[in-house]
Specification:
By secondary structure, the chain is mainly alpha-helical. The chain has eight helices and three strands; from the N terminus they run H-H-H-E-E-H-H-H-H-E-H. Strands 1-2-3 form a three-stranded antiparallel beta sheet. Strand 1 and strand 2 form a beta hairpin. Helix 1 packs across helix 5 and helix 4 packs antiparallel against helix 5. It is globular. About 20% of the residues are buried. The mean pLDDT is about 80.
Length: about 210
């Protein structure tokens, strides 16, 4: 679903050397950051925003690679780019092959795949360090927090030597104002939800 012809050409990263894959990943991050920048204007053109069409993803791909959270007056949009890297998919594929009969080989292969992924991500991040505009969209800290909630400060397995706070990531995000014509409906829904949960909570504070 996240490789081969199922992806739009925009997202297809070919396996190559660490340097080649890292540079390609950095280029993709720059292109996606530009889409996030344009989203500040484009979001209001949708009656209900659909990340799939906007980012040229199928519905299933958008569910895996994006997250859109509408709040009372703002929108938080996240794009998870790490999963598009061939190095990431190699780790994922290797992890899925675990079985008691092949544990030693599996452990070694997974460790090698994980080390290569870190090298690719490190190469991409070094290539992006001079792009101040793109760095403004970096959500690496947000992604690390997600890892921490899932596995604690130091996950087990081949990634154990690296603390969660040190994990590299190309995850990007943007916060933008929720268009005015959507705010009233969103606030009404929030007010009804809160009133159902807390019947004595004054509804006026959500006006």
């Amino acid at each position: 679903m996240l490789s081969g012809r199922s992806l739009a050409p925009f997202y297809r990263l070919r396996p190559g050397s660490v340097e080649e894959e890292g540079r390609a990943a950095a280029q993709l991050a720059g292109d996606v950051a530009e889409r996030l920048r344009r989203l500040r204007q484009a979001y209001g053109e949708w009656q209900q925003f659909e990340p799939g069409p906007y980012f040229d993803l199928t519905e299933e791909q958008a569910a895996l690679l994006t997250r859109v959270v509408e709040r009372a007056s703002t929108v938080h949009v996240v794009v998870y780019l790490d999963a598009l890297l061939p190095a990431f998919q190699a780790v994922q594929g290797c992890a899925g092959q675990n079985s008691p009969q092949m544990t030693p080989c599996w452990q070694n292969a997974l460790t090698r795949s994980w080390s290569r992924l870190l090298e690719v991500l490190g190469t991409a991040q070094r290539a992006l360090q001079q792009d101040i505009t793109l760095l403004a969209y970096s959500a690496a800290d947000e992604e690390r927090a997600r890892w921490q909630r899932a596995g604690g400060e130091r996950p087990a397995g081949p990634w154990a030597p690296l603390a969660v706070k040190e994990l590299p990531s190309l995850t990007l995000s943007v916060d933008l104002p929720l268009p005015v014509f959507l705010q009233s409906g969103r606030r009404r829904r929030l007010r009804r939800t809160w009133q159902r949960l807390y019947s004595r909570l004054p509804g006026e504070q959500f006006e």
